[in-house]
């Protein structure tokens, strides 16, 4: 597998270092001649000086045979251009973009970027998981920005307690994927009866997350 990483900041540096150590074929593209000289000493020939947002630089980097292009510069606009150029001009199968402003994450997805990484949203997700009273936390946002995999715990006063799934009228576009009870996995069926302290994992549209949360916490 051949991967091109654009952006030689801390993220790009450590990503390149890790992938090289794990035996992957990697090329790091960085604008700064000073950084490139330093990285040459550390990585050898796997560093190219240039602007990864320019098609000529990607062509020189061999983007036509790349399996993955990862854009991790500090500029969201550059990361978007890099990934779109890789896809449209060089038919790169998989593009991954760092998103510095979380407000841009949905835009990136709508414009065809395969994977977006927002450190702000990752930290928020960790915080959510450490706050049990939150009621419903994101496990994963899917490629389609309006869908997410969410997890919640059924509370004692919830209206769903003691009811079978066939009796529960879930919000639109909600599919219960799994129920965890005392550490045991239950595959949900129509006759599955929900109990307090059950942990449920569901696929939900953005609009249905709040109604689902209300159902699970009972308020």
Overall geometric form: elongated
Main sheet record: 6 strands, parallel
Gyration radius, rounded: 22 Å
The number of strands is 11
Give the integer mean of the pLDDT values.
Answer: 85
Helix and strand pattern: EHEHEHEHEHEHEEEEEH
Question: Helicity level, as a percent range?
Answer: 25-40%
Give, in spatial order, the strands making up the sheet with the most strands.
3-2-1-4-5-6
Ranges where pLDDT stays below 50 over 5 or more residues in a row are none
Counted by DSSP, the helix tally is 7
Could you say which structural class the secondary elements and strand pairing correspond to?
alpha/beta
Distance between the termini: 50 Å
Q: What portion of residues belong to β-strands?
A: 25-35%
Provide structural commentary.
- By secondary structure, the chain is of the alpha/beta class.
- The protein is built from seven helices and eleven strands.
- A six-stranded parallel beta sheet has the order 3-2-1-4-5-6, sandwiched between helices. The protein has a five-stranded antiparallel beta sheet with strand order 7-8-11-9-10.
- The termini are far apart.
- The mean pLDDT is 85.
Give a brief description.
The protein is α/β, with parallel strands linked by helices. The chain is built from 7 helices and 11 strands.
């Amino acid at each position: 597998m051949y991967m091109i990483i654009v952006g030689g900041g801390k993220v790009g540096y450590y990503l390149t270092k890790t992938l090289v150590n794990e035996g992957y074929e990697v090329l790091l593209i960085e604008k700064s001649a000073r950084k490139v000289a330093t990285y040459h000493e550390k990585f050898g020939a796997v560093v190219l000086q240039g602007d990864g947002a320019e098609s000529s630089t990607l062509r020189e980097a061999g983007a036509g045979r790349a399996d993955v292009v990862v854009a991790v510069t500090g500029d969201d606009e550059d990361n978007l251009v890099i990934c779109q150029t890789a896809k449209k001009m060089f038919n790169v199968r998989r593009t991954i973009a760092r998103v510095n402003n979380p407000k841009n994450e949905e835009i990136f997805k709508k414009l065809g970027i395969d994977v977006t990484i927002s450190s702000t949203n990752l930290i928020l997700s960790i915080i959510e998981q450490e706050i049990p009273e939150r009621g419903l936390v994101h496990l994963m946002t899917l490629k389609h920005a309006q869908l997410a995999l969410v997890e919640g715990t059924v509370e004692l006063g919830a209206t769903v307690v003691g009811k079978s799934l066939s009796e529960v009228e879930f919000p639109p576009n909600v599919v219960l994927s799994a129920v965890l009870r005392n550490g045991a996995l239950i595959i949900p069926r129509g006759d599955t009866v929900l109990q307090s302290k059950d942990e449920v994992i569901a696929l939900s549209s953005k609009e249905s997350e709040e109604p689902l949360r209300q159902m699970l916490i009972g308020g």
